[in-house]
Amino acid sequence: MAVAKSSFTCTDCGWTTPKWVGRCGECQAWDTMQEGKAGGGRGLGTVRQIKPVAIVGSSAAKPITHVSTERVAAWSTQVGEFDRVLGGGLVPGAVVLLSGEPGVGKSTLLLEVAANTAKSGKTVLYVSGEESVGQIRLRAERTGAMSDNLFIASETDLSTVLGQIDAVSPELLVVDSVQTIAAAEIDGAAGMPSQIREVAANLIRIAKERALPVILVGHVTKDGNIAGPRALEHLVDVVCHFEGDRQTSLRFVRSMKNRFGPTDEVGCFEMTGEGINEVPDPSGMFLSRGDAPVSGTCVTVTVEGKRPLIAEVQALVVKSSTPQPRRVTNGVDSARVAMLLAVLERRAGLRLSDMDVYVSTVGGVKLTEPASDLAIALAIASAVQDKPIAHNLVAFGEISLAGEIRKVSNGKVRASEANRLGFVRSVDSAVGDLKAALALGLNW
After folding, report:
1. Are residues 326 and 412 in the same domain?
2. Do the domain assignments include residue 51?
3. Of 68, 125, 141, 215, which one is least surrounded by beta carbons within 10 A?
């Protein structure tokens, strides 16, 4: 009697091999090979013939101009910054995946979203596989997220979660998190790629059938990627990432994928002892302005998505006591600062090779775009010459290795935001070269 041969298939990409390997040869994922019977798949020459189904009634295709959009209009979650990232609110039947580092505040944010939606009159079901209902109640009391329309459940079984949906008939479902829910019919523990795929597929099916918005919380790996199969990000409609420095209270929600709106919006929040608060105008959090001007500080305008933000750069330059001068940065790219120091020494005549240079931002903001080059250079030059920069001056522009100041994107948006906050003087690409910009900024 012939012995049935077995093969091993990657649960992430479907690559098949007759022998077990620890790492998939196609997608390079570890521990994703599962054993199954060989011959289950069909070659290209033996395509199965599928009989067509007669299309009748409402399922028939229709011109796109005849499709009504009333049933898919977005409704607000009553959290303005979250609505901004979603593109105006939640769309019925949409599935949103929110990821972030442990402890950054994902559960706190979604409990706030669930409570505000419930207070608006909608029924909300909050399912947690990580906390008990008592723990959720304590956190809700502390943050003021209490409402009779908010139903909470602590479940880790998919069938029970689906039963809770049938019993409550919610208008918004929050699952915290998709990695903690498991289906009894699928082999493997919760969090395995096969389990995540099955759980997500069932929740997405429920969302589309009932026009039910679903928000899923996703864990991240040590590399910062969403744990589980990559197919999870393809299946959902919106992918958001919740990020922030644990040393500061500021948090950002960024949209990585959005089928209903732009992907360049950023929502700002502040973590407090009473929960999480919206920050509609976060520019003031990145400034530390005293009454008297201080040398080594310069204000710039950075753009997060479409939102302009005022940020302050501080620099300190002192005589080095070591053979190798120190270059310490916080909130800015250290390689970018090293390049700017070389340009300042070569093109502007500032002696920095024997100086310790410290560059930092205020409020924990991170400046990653080249538009902050000019502000960093002005702050360093101000610290070297001990000349304070005027309080009402703002600088933005990219500095080239030749000492030229290049134009940056969204120049008008940056200028209008600076004018709105009282910065009536600006140093930008219109000045021309670095020497002229330093002379203008330090002697204005």
Report:
1. yes
2. no
3. 68
Q: Determine phi and psi for 107, rounding to 5 degrees.
A: -65, -40
Give the tens place of pLDDT for each residue, 189-201. Answer: 888 888 998 999 9
Give the pLDDT score at 39: 45
Contact call for residues 394 and 423 (beta carbons, < 8 A): yes
Q: How far is CA 181 from the centre of its chain?
A: 23
The number of beta carbons lying within 10 Å of the beta carbon of residue 364 is 17
Domain that holds residue 260: 75-280
Binding-site entries for ATP: 100-107
Q: Is the pTM of this model over 0.85?
A: no
The answer to whether residue 68 is domain-embedded is no
Q: Are residues 90 and 226 in the same domain?
A: yes
Specify whether 156 is located in the same domain as 242. yes
Q: Among 140-154, 225-239, 264-278, which range has the highest average pLDDT?
A: 140-154
Instruction: Provide the pLDDT for residue 3.
Output: 53
* Binding-site residue positions: 100-107
In degrees to the nearest 10, what's the CA dihedral of 74, 78, 83, 89?
A: -10
SS3 state at 167: helix
